[in-house]
Amino acid sequence: MPSQILLATHINAPVEKVFDIARNIDVHVESTKHTGEQAIAGRTSGLIELGETVTWRAKHFGVWQNLTSKITEMEYPNYFTDVQVEGAFKNFTHEHYFYPILNQTMMRDIFTFESPGGIFGEAANFLFLSNYMTRLLLKRNAVIKQIAEAPQPPKGGV
């Protein structure tokens, strides 16, 4: 049975800026540096686009794992969806939505996942995996927010 994580993050920055930061591979690496995560194949830096894949290598629960996801839907700057095409989950879909509010953004995540292993996978979701994934997504969103809200240097020099 799939599990679902719903998050909403208010960001004091324009929707286009937040959208691009959220799909930036380098920002993702920064937000997951505590797992040693690196992009090792497919798009490995910059902005990921519709139809592109990225393969991540990271250490979770003391084990190095690879996971490949693909951007299957994208409408700039409103939403994009990535799905696992290879990895430890039985499946996952991560929907990213961006809502402009004046010159700010409400970023919404819907992360739906299913673990392998039938009833044992469901037990793992309940006991620890849902909380672990929620913390990972909250950390990622905090980094996106920090980067988006950071003061920009003046244009045109000093």
Task: Provide an overview of this structure.
It is a single chain. By secondary structure, this protein is of the alpha+beta class. The chain has a single domain, classed as START domain (Alpha-D-Glucose-1,6-Bisphosphate, Chain A, domain 4). Helices cover 29% and strands 41% of the residues. It is built from three helices and seven strands; from the N terminus they run E-H-H-E-E-E-E-E-E-H. It has a seven-stranded antiparallel sheet with strand order 1-7-6-5-4-3-2, with helices on one face. Strand 3 and strand 4 form a beta hairpin. The longest helix has 31 residues. It starts with a strand and ends in a 9-residue tail after the last helix.
C-alpha geometry? globular
Rounded to the nearest angstrom, the distance between the terminal CA atoms is: 57 Å
Main pleated sheet: 7 strands, antiparallel
Number of strands: 7
- The average pLDDT score comes to 92
Question: What low-confidence regions span 5 or more consecutive residues with pLDDT below 50?
Answer: none
The gist of it:
Helices cover 29% and strands 41% of the residues. The chain is α+β, with helices and mostly antiparallel strands and 158 residues long.
